[in-house]
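Sample intake — Beta-glucosidase
Collected from: Streptoalloteichus tenebrarius
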Amino acid sequence: MAVPDPTLPSFPDDFLWGAATSAYQVEGAVAEDGRGRSVWDTFCATPGKVARGQNGDVACDHYHRYPEDVALLAELGLDAYRFSVAWPRVQPTGTGPANPAGLDFYDRLVDALLAADLTPVATLYHWDTPQPVEDAGGWLARDTAHRFADYAALVAERLADRVPWWITLNEPAVVTMLGYGVGEHAPGRTLLLDALPAAHHQLLAHGLATRALRSAGAARVGVANSHTPVWPASDHPDDVAAAAAYADLHNWIYGDPLLVGAYPDLAWLAGGLPDDAADDLPLIAQPLDFYGVNYYCPTRVRAADPGEPLPFAVAEIAERPRTHVGWPVVPEGLREILVALRARYREALPPVLVTENGCSQDDAPDERGVVDDPDRIDFLRQHLVALRQAMDDGVDVRGYFVWSLLDNFEWAEGYDQRFGLVHVDFDTLVRTPKASYHWLRAALRDEG
Ligand code: GBH
């Protein structure tokens, strides 16, 4: 059994320790209680899009097994659970009155969390746009932002009395780039840089939803952005310029409007954002109670070769160990991006929550039924050391959420990429806490 880890730094008493999941990745039950279809149902049913043709129809069956999962969270000794609400459960066609049976699920989940002394952190959008909303243009259509605000109001009216932390959007950068830019995620559009209106409309959706959440009495409102340090592949000015363009596209076209009410100067990009985008900036830049940062790894970027579709290309970070999905393990990148955010935004950066960090490994139970995942323990330990260093550097970080509580449906990768602290057998749905779960539990007890 795990023992307290003397190599871990200590954190403030009120630091919020949590684990995260998202609706489509864990819930299953896609046809129950009136849930409508989402872009991910459609994408998964499109041949060639998801590894092995897998989908979230059953996933972890969290929709039915949430009491067991809440017990696992409580036993782990965490303070908080970050989950997402599925828009197509609440509004099966993306508009109109709430589907009460859909909201009931989140009501039960929230009550179970509170009964176990766990703080609910609700994300309103983790990529599962109702299919009819997509058919009307999805994030390319300005109207989607208004549809989203209506949905946000319905959820908040039901849950804001018990959910203290609200996240509007998860990783709009990934939705824009992978969903609308290169088509690796739903809805599978390949618009390259013409995808940028999807960025602006998500930001507008955030602004409108923030207003709706606050009028429904939500206590704390924030957003969860994917952030990555961007490393030029060389000192050559072309590589440096390519890296700056990539950083704009991944980091700053989200962070800047949200936190300082301006878009970065996209001099490298002709056209791009909607013409009247500037008019929306005051709404987008409403003060936030916290800023969520999802960190996995840095990105090395080089100038594109002739004939490549974008002005930059991603180069390998080959000198580092990699996780099962192939991403380099760079713990100090977490410190680097947090310090960069603080340097860029200064007093305009609200308190930060690390809303996702974790790694995929090829975990399986051995003949004794034990899931030994030493690489995940090392990964988490090293990232917590880097996080503590960022705090010592002056970044006001208030919490840390492991991605993920459970092995789950890893989008286009299907079920082969296991990010969980808890192993899930996707045939039997049996949950088995991994060694990393036992390690974290002991560490949290030691912290008190
Ligand atoms: C998050 O996205 C999601 O919020 C979550 O749903 C998901 O399950 C989890 O992370 C794990 O994937 O190929 O080396 O250039 C992660 C966003 C964007 C982070 C792509 C890593 C590529 C690294 N990811 N990025 S690399």
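Post-analysis note: The chain has a mean pLDDT of 97.
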